[in-house]
Write a structure and sequence with these properties.
12 helices; seven-stranded mixed sheet; globular
Length: about 375
């Protein structure tokens, strides 16, 4: 919603490249003419979706850049652009990357369906595409993310645990992510599998562009519609939205469990302070490492056998070689064993003056 060194899973799909002459290369369907395999001097195009969520600029980008450099002996170059939540801009950025003849693209799509034509253009230009974090449509060559339904289930299970005997004493509000993000649909599906029949959903929203201010506005509407005494908890799909939700709850004098995702620093601090019940800790280092390794292998015409163990179907492409990274429910009880242990944050990062007392109470010293 990003870090330390992790091991990355390994696995299946062969990418063939002719050693000489004009030959076709299988990169998830893309065809390419090449005389020899690329060396280390490759260009990796990296397109991230927005800069509102802290993870992309703080973790994903530097982690991918570092890993590409390591894998190419410092000779590989990452060409970067951020779409700032604009699907049209991201399509233009793909065109620019194609014009600049990058060897491979890593794309975290603003809109997984809208990016389809751009992925097709890259495919036709012989540039394989690694779908990063979100399963983009079109002829992608590889994909890495987290098990997104498991993320939703983890959030739902945590909310039920927090509610305990109060689960059916009132109603919950469900604040899902953007309808243009396929991950949001998977989070929602996983959460509903756990929550349905065990809680009453009073209001449910698909939050435009994942923006905290939109979540805040939605929450204010839910409070007005349901009444503040009838809300027992809030399912929030990520930490950014949780911040907007908690602001609305505070203004209404409501203190109920709120979920989150991404283990953003502000989210971790709210957990320490008791304002947010949990977040989903997604270790971005293995995800970024998997993306970088697949990108470098594809650019160099190598097999993905040593990286991609899983296979995932998108709405347009079947059996995409994939790496799915495990997640952890982050609560006040395991902050030390997750984000601090993994070097994501230090105690000093979390325990600023505002949170000193809460940190001491939580045993963070």
């Amino acid at each position: 919603m990003r870090r330390a060194a992790f091991a990355v899973a390994a696995g299946a799909m062969a990418v063939s490249l002719a050693a000489c002459g004009s030959a076709k290369e299988s990169t998830g369907g893309a065809s390419k003419t090449a005389d020899t395999k690329k060396g280390d001097a490759i260009k990796v195009g990296l397109l991230l979706p927005e800069n509102q969520t802290a993870r992309y600029e703080k973790f994903d980008r530097p982690l991918i850049e570092k890993k590409v450099s390591e894998l190419t002996n410092g000779k590989g170059k990452v060409v970067y652009a951020n779409a700032k939540q604009d699907a049209t801009l991201q399509s233009q950025q793909v065109d620019t990357m194609i014009t600049n003849k990058v060897d491979v693209l890593v794309i975290d799509a603003v809109d997984a369906a809208a990016i389809k034509n751009s992925v097709q253009k890259a495919h036709e230009a012989g540039i394989p595409v690694v779908a990063y974090d979100r399963l983009a449509q079109g002829p992608i060559a590889a994909y890495t993310s987290f098990d997104n339904e498991t993320v939703g289930k983890t959030q739902g299970e945590a909310l039920l645990k927090a509610l305990g005997s109060k689960a059916k004493s009132g109603k919950i509000v469900m604040m899902n992510g953007s309808s243009t993000d396929p991950n949001a649909a998977q989070f929602k599906k996983g959460a509903h599998e756990v929550l349905d029949g065990k809680v009453k959903v009073g209001k449910e929203y698909d939050t435009k562009e994942w923006k905290p201010e939109n979540a805040n506005s939605n929450m204010e509407g839910a409070i007005s519609a349901l009444g503040k005494k009838n809300i027992v908890g809030v399912y929030s799909a990520n930490d950014g939205m949780a911040g907007g939700i908690i602001t609305a709850l505070k203004q209404a004098g409501i203190n109920v469990p709120v979920t989150g995702q991404d283990a953003e620093l502000a989210g971790v601090q709210r957990i320490v302070a008791g304002e947010q019940f949990m977040s989903v800790y997604k270790p971005y280092a293995p995800e970024a490492a998997a993306a970088a390794e697949m990108a470098v292998d594809l650019a160099q015409g190598k097999s993905l056998d040593s990286v991609a163990k899983d296979k995932v179907d998108s709405p347009t492409t079947k059996g995409v070689p994939s790496v799915l990274v495990a997640v952890t429910s982050l609560t006040k009880d395991n902050i030390k064993d997750t984000v601090i242990k993994d070097g994501v944050y230090t105690v000093a990062d979390i325990c600023t003056a505002q949170y000193k007392a809460a940190c001491a109470k939580a045993g963070l010293k």
